[in-house]
């Protein structure tokens, strides 16, 4: 079993290629409830990012992502579906970044969900994030059953991107179009005030 490897090997492997380790180890950690090791893994990747090395993002299927759509807290969640090959998506990323920077302290959580192909993570997604100094949380959604999960995001979603879900404990909104900064502010400010 993977967890039986030495901690020195895992530490070296996590730093060499943490993305691939997440997929292999995460399920085993959850099954064995080895929370301490999971926290150490996350900490090692966080330290790597803080030291200015390359950014790491995780790849998940819809089942792992779905809880992000239904968090019950006093935060406002802004979840944007995008891809590096989508020009309108790329144009609006700076606006989500500005929202994250300006309203993060007011419990606004921005999540950028990349729909790029998994094999483009290293060649397109990570270079784009680094080149544009993206600070928001980013995941890559890798689930080939889009006809199943798209209506779970929103019944009216055709699958076209960009698409954005904004919700709080009191309200849920969906936009299947490009948004600018002023529109995003108009959308989230009432939700912040209603908390």
Account of the protein in words:
The chain has 195 residues and is of the alpha/beta class. The chain has two domains: 2-56, no CATH class; 59-193, Glutaredoxin. It contains eight helices and six strands; from the N terminus they run αααβαβαβαβαββα. A six-stranded mixed beta sheet has the order 1-4-3-2-5-6.
CATH architectural label of the largest domain: 3-Layer(aba) Sandwich
Number of helices: 8
What Rg is obtained from the alpha carbons, in whole angstroms? 17 Å
Q: Label the overall shape.
A: globular
The percent range for helix content is: 40-55%
Termini separation comes to: 46 Å
Mean pLDDT: 80
The CATH class of the largest domain turns out to be Alpha Beta
CATH homology group of the largest domain: Glutaredoxin
Q: Key terms for this structure?
A:
Glutaredoxin; 6 strands; 195 residues; 2 domains
Briefly characterize the structure.
The protein is of the alpha/beta class. It is built from 8 helices and 6 strands, in the order H-H-H-E-H-E-H-E-H-E-H-E-E-H.
List the helices and strands and how they pair.
Elements: H1 7-16, H2 18-32, H3 35-50, E1 58-60, H4 62-65, E2 76-82, H5 87-103, E3 108-114, H6 121-131, E4 137-141, H7 146-153, E5 163-167, E6 172-175, H8 181-193
Parallel strand pairs: 1-4, 2-3, 3-4
Antiparallel strand pairs: 2-5, 5-6
